């Protein structure tokens, strides 16, 4: 069953008014989804983490711009009164890299098939740094927005193979229909902060990722001096859906500082 998405006000109110809900000896896990996805992409990971006693917040990433998305996630972090493990998937990695700045409760960063940009880098630039991404040809014609930017979607018939090659086809088709767009501006926006420089990070990605070249993610993990990097043989871009146990295990390792 999909996890219900809360408005920012409702989410912050719930976090502020329910401190007893937090496990006293465990950090809160904040999950930030990426482009062409939503918070339900974390369902399998959430189930495992909750069973293991963790409080989990699967935030609704607006996918409008790195600056505004990071500000939104920063507001979520400010409402949490426990240590936090901040987790990002894909473009969500760029968001958490900036959002963690100035929030001392963020103790660990986890990058799940994600970007971890340096200041001045963009998600689009990192995608093309090494060969292997086939996302460009799989995109649908951009949708012009009244503010001057453009929304990007993956063509539905190409979505399963491009985005979720190791997910059952029926489920991948549902994901294709439910995908949330990202603006072209967000993917090309320069990063303003790089929290991985002073917050320890953990990384996981698959060898069959067609959105972000595995070589690019290896480069970023090594640059960030990743505490632990897990490479899942044959996993697609949505490794958290196809291999939730391995992703949850890495998040729990980050929660314990292992």
Automatic annotation (TrEMBL):
Keyword Signal attributed: yes
GO molecular function, one term: hydrolase activity
Signal peptide start-end: 1-23
Domain (AB hydrolase-1) ranges: 29-249
Alphabetic keyword roster: Hydrolase, Signal
PANTHER family: AB HYDROLASE-1 DOMAIN-CONTAINING PROTEIN-RELATED, ESTERASE_LIPASE_THIOESTERASE DOMAIN-CONTAINING PROTEIN
Protein name as it appears in the record: Alpha/beta hydrolase
Annotated source species: Luteibacter jiangsuensis
